[in-house]
Write a structure and sequence with these properties.
GO molecular function, one term (chain B): ATPase-coupled transmembrane transporter activity
Strand order of the largest sheet of chain B: 6-7-8-3-9-10
CATH class of the largest domain in chain B: Alpha Beta
Family (chain B): Belongs to the ABC transporter superfamily.
CATH superfamily of the largest domain in chain B: P-loop containing nucleotide triphosphate hydrolases
Number of helices of chain B: 11
Largest sheet of chain A: 6 strands, mixed
Subcellular location (chain B): Cell membrane
Helix content of chain A: 25-40%
Number of strands of chain B: 10
Number of helices of chain A: 11
Keywords (chain B): ATP-binding, Cell membrane, Membrane, Nucleotide-binding, Translocase, Transport
CATH topology of the largest domain in chain B: Rossmann fold
Structural class of chain A: alpha/beta
Largest interface: A-B, 33 and 33 residues
Protein name (chain B): Energy-coupling factor transport system ATP-binding protein
Strand content of chain A: 15-25%
Distance between the termini of chain B: 50 Å
Strand content of chain B: 15-25%
Number of domains of chain A: 2
CATH class of the largest domain in chain A: Alpha Beta
Order of helices and strands of chain A: EEEHEEHEHHHEHEHEEHHHH
Oligomer: heterodimer
Structural class of chain B: alpha/beta
Shape of chain B: globular
Radius of gyration of chain B: 20 Å
CATH architecture of the largest domain in chain B: 3-Layer(aba) Sandwich
Largest sheet of chain B: 6 strands, mixed
Chain lengths: ~290, ~270
């Protein structure tokens, strides 16, 4: 689903002494079928922006269009019920929202709530659980008997079982160990690749993760949009990254250091181990050819 | 005497399963020890045993010369061995930064004048000058963790235990806290025990303990541990990038020194490669 944000501002607790402006006159377009990321420091407004994309919050002024839905300050919450099915959100620590007696029931809750029959809901729930790496023998367990990583997977299954077209991910791997992080990110990526129209918007502090998966990056700062750029262009441009105080992803940074030390230009557009290895081998072998 | 002595420590939350099994190690005065392991490996449980938040099921933990089982000395032990937790929001209690830093001192019965001096000094050390009257909950994650550290350092501890204190922070906050750890350990000689799954952070430590399924799988320098493929695979630890890439290059038949750890070392080796 395409997301279009037009002149959107958002103020928390408007007309109270606690009034805080989280977004200032933001306009941007996130095309359908693309993996997007929103980056920025704590308090930059990125999470607030994302909460507009499934109607969890409404803009204080301006308009947000998500697929065929339009969200303005006047939009009624009940008109957004259907949007929530198409735009699934995985928050930070989604496991804190588990509540049912069994994992299966927990994952079935959303589909049932959106009009699926019990049999249909069970089918999509089981599929979603298997996809997130939760084997059948765990489906009848209580969510509270699970490890932290399994609870996270169950919560993600709950979102995928809604069969969304747009997936909104707000720091989905916070607090997981590196292996868990990698597995969860790969799972989202596989989901994304399955169908042309599927769209992801990821919020993450981890520039390695963003560079690895996202194609398009939006930079937010103090409630304003600073830049929308292709990931491959942004993450290989040291001065641009410096300007927005973003870390260069580790593979590109290593190649950059090597380029500076050796004086030989290198292709910095490498955000995985395999891509970096390929660049390093080429560097060494070309050196050979010169000699 | 070593500030941390762990002997035959076992621990369980329930009757069935031991979360920690037969753990033995010592930490020397002024040492920086990283405890690494995947989620569920027992590393946070171990951290909570070190300052008596959890009691051994069997075995002993002696921190700063005090057995954690001794109720008489437990408060004294916790003053000597302070702990910073993962969630910055759950450990700040007072309405202002200065009050928060003073909180522990007040509890410890430090006279008012000395308290004021110590608060000022701690705030300065943690580079929080100018934020004294701010509300802690309005600070950034890195600042919050530094307030927590200031509250601990004001008590002049011998040991500081950080339980994944950087894992919820953005990269800037992480660097801020790591820099403070460096200062406290390298310049002031405070013993640091840092629980982490960030291998980059662990690679700075003097020693690394690797936990897996409640047992101590390895206890060595980070450099040595990053060489032990079996340990890393079993403990599900990710190698720091320079270590991983030099290994991949060696597998491609590129001859490189065995003990490359840092980005700089790898870049140098590649530039000199023939």
């Amino acid at each position: 689903m395409r997301v279009e944000v037009e002149n959107v501002s958002f103020t928390y607790m408007k007309d109270t002494p606690f009034e805080t402006t989280a977004l200032r006159n933001v306009s941007l377009t996130l095309e359908a079928g693309v993996y997007h990321a929103i980056v920025g420091h704590t308090g930059s407004g990125k999470s607030t922006l994302m909460q507009l994309f499934n109607g969890l919050e409404k803009p204080t002024s301006g308009k947000v269009s998500v697929g065929e839905w339009e969200i303005t300050p006047e939009t009624k919450q009940r008109d957004l019920h259907e949007l929530r099915r198409h735009a699934g959100v995985v928050f930070q620590f989604p496991e804190s929202q588990l509540f049912e007696e069994t994992i299966l029931k927990d994952v079935m809750f959303g589909p049932l709530n959106h009009g699926k029959t019990k049999a249909e809901a069970e089918t999509v729930a089981r599929e979603a659980l298997l996809r997130t790496g939760m084997p059948a023998e765990l489906h009848d367990r209580s969510p509270f008997e699970l490890s932290g990583g399994q609870m996270r997977r169950t919560a993600i299954a709950g979102v995928l079982a809604m069969e969304p077209q747009l997936l909104l991910l707000d720091e989905p791997t916070a607090g997981l160990d590196p292996e868990g992080q990698q597995e969860i990110m790969q799972l989202f990526y596989d989901w994304y690749r399955e169908k042309e129209a599927r769209t992801i918007v990821l919020i993450s502090h981890d520039m390695n993760q963003v560079a690895r998966f996202a194609e398009n990056v939006v930079i937010m700062e103090q409630g304003e949009k600073q830049l929308a750029e292709k990931a491959s262009a942004l993450f290989t441009d040291e001065s641009l990254l410096k300007k927005y105080q973003l870390a260069m992803p580790e593979h590109a940074r290593l190649l950059k250091r090597l380029e500076d030390a050796s004086g030989k230009p290198l292709d910095l557009n490498a955000f995985s181990d395999e891509a970096a290895l390929e660049r390093l081998l080429r560097f060494l072998r070309e050196g050979d050819a010169d000699a | 005497m070593d500030p941390i002595i762990v002997e035959d420590l076992s621990f369980s939350y329930t009757a069935e399963q031991l979360v920690l099994q037969d753990i033995n190690f010592r930490v020397k005065q002024g040492e920086w020890v990283a405890i690494a392991g995947h989620n569920g490996s027992g590393k946070s449980t171990l951290a909570k045993c070190l300052n008596g938040l959890l009691m051994p099921k069997s075995g002993e933990v002696i921190t700063c010369g005090r057995n954690t089982k001794d109720k008489e000395t437990i408060m004294d032990l916790r003053r000597r061995a302070g702990m910073v937790f993962q969630q910055p929001d759950n450990q700040l209690v007072a309405p202002t930064v200065a009050d928060d830093v003073a909180f522990g001192l007040e509890n410890a019965g430090i006279p008012f004048k000395e308290m004021q001096e110590r608060v000022k000094e701690s705030i300065h050390r943690m580079k929080l000058d100018g934020l004294e009257d701010r509300e802690p909950h309005r600070l950034s994650g890195g600042q919050k963790q530094r307030v927590a550290l200031a509250g601990i350092t004001a008590l002049r501890p011998e040991v500081i235990i950080l339980d994944e204190a950087t894992s919820m922070l953005d990269p800037v906050g992480r660097q801020e806290v790591q820099e403070m750890m460096r200062t406290l350990c390298r310049e002031e000689g405070i013993t640091i025990v840092s629980i982490t799954h960030d291998v980059e952070e662990a690679s700075e430590a003097d020693r690394m303990l690797v936990m897996h399924e409640g047992r101590l799988l390895a206890d060595d320098t980070p450099r040595e541990i990053f060489r032990q493929q079996e340990v890393l695979v079993q403990a599900k630890l990710t190698l720091p990038l320079p270590v991983k890439l030099s290994r991949m290059l060696r597998e491609e038949g590129i001859r490189l020194p065995q003990d490359i750890m840092s980005e700089q070392e790898l870049v140098d080796a590649l530039c000199e490669w023939k």
